[in-house]
Amino acid sequence: MKIDVITVFPEMFRGFFGESILKRAAAMGVASIRTVDLRDFATDRRRTVDDKPYSGGPGMLMKPDVWFQAIESCLGDRSVPARVVMMTPTGRPYTQRVAEEFSAAEHLIILCGHYEGIDERVKTLVTDEISIGDFVLTGGEIPAAAIVDSVVRLLPGVLGGGSEATAKESFGSDGLLEAPQYTRPPEYRGLKVPDVLIGGDHAKTESWRKRQAFDLTSRNRPDIIAMGGTYAV
Ligand SMILES: C[S@@+](CC[C@H](N)C(=O)[O-])C[C@H]1O[C@@H](n2cnc3c(N)ncnc32)[C@H](O)[C@@H]1O
C-alpha cells in the first residue's frame, strides 16, 4: 500500500513513521509512507498556503490552488485507484470499520488541514471526509497519524498473530471491547489474577472472556450494546 500525507508540517511525522509498527511495515515493503510538503506547491517566495476567508471572521483558510496541485501530483496518472482522505472535524466519524475499508485501498492520500481549514472547492478531489472525534485540533497531523497507524497494522503480515490478532481486539469481529488481560506474577500487592485464567480450561476461559467483554462494553460503551453488540460504521 502507498500512503501520501500532505501537510505543512512534514517534520511532525519523522519520528512517528520511523518507529515501531510503521517502521516494520516500511521495512517489510508492505507500506510505503511518504510526507508531501504542501508549501512545495506555493508559487510565491514566501511559500504562502493560506489567505483570508471571504466570509470574514478570524483566522486564515488554506488556498485551493496549492491543494489541487499537491493532490494531483500524488494522484499521478491515476492508473492506481486512490482514496483521497480529508481530515476535518466536519467529516464522518472514524471507526475500526473505516480503518478496515482503507486498509483494502492501494493508495491513500491524506490531507492535513491547518488554520481555519481548507477551501471548500478542494472537496471535489476528495473521496472521504473523516473526523477522529467530536473535538477540534489545531491541525490534521494527529488525525492523519492515527489513521496511518490504524490502517497499517491491519495490513497482512505487519502484526505478529495475523488476522486473528486484530479480529479478537476491541471492535473486532464480535464488536465488543476486549476483555481484561493479565500477565505474571499471579499475585501483585494482593491483587490476584482470576483463577479461571490460571486453571488452563480453555472453554471456561473463553466463556469468562465473553462475559467480561460484555460487562465492560455495557459499562463503558452502552451505545455499542444498544446497537446490538455490533460496532457499526
Ligand atoms: C482548527 S481545525 C479547523 C476547524 C474548523 N474551522 C471547524 O470549525 O470545523 C484545523 C484542521 O485540523 C484538522 N482537525 C481538527 N480537528 C479534527 C478532527 N476532530 N478530526 C479530523 N481532523 C481535525 C482538520 O484538518 C482541520 O482542517
Features:
five-stranded parallel beta sheet, alpha/beta, Trp Operon Repressor, Chain A, Alpha/beta knot, binds S-adenosylmethionine, 18% strand, single chain, two-stranded antiparallel ribbon, 233 residues
- The helix content is 25-40%
Could you tell me the CATH topology label of the largest domain.
Answer: Alpha/beta knot
CATH class of the largest domain: Alpha Beta
Count of structural domains: 2
Q: Work out the number of β strands.
A: 9
Element order, helices and strands? EHHEEEHEHEEHHEEHHH
Q: Tell me which ligands are bound.
A: S-adenosylmethionine
Average pLDDT taken over every residue: 95
Q: Which spans have pLDDT < 50 for at least 5 consecutive residues?
A: none
Largest sheet, if any? 5 strands, parallel
Tell me the strand order in the biggest sheet: 2-1-6-5-7
How big a fraction of the residues is strand?
A: 15-25%
Task: Give your account of this protein's structure.
The mean pLDDT is 95. The protein is of the alpha/beta class and 233 residues long. Helices cover 34% and strands 18% of the residues. α4 packs across α5 (141-152). The chain starts with a strand and ends in a 7-residue tail after the last helix. The longest helix is centred in the last third of the chain and has 19 residues, at 202-220. The strands form 3 sheets. Strands 2-1-6-5-7 form a 5-stranded parallel β-sheet, with helices on both faces. It has a two-stranded antiparallel ribbon with strand order 3-4. The chain has 2 domains: 2-152, Alpha/beta knot (3-Layer(aba) Sandwich); 169-226, tRNA(m1g37)methyltransferase, domain 2 (Trp Operon Repressor, Chain A, Orthogonal Bundle). It has 9 helices and 9 strands. β8 and β9 (191-192) form a beta hairpin. It binds S-adenosylmethionine.
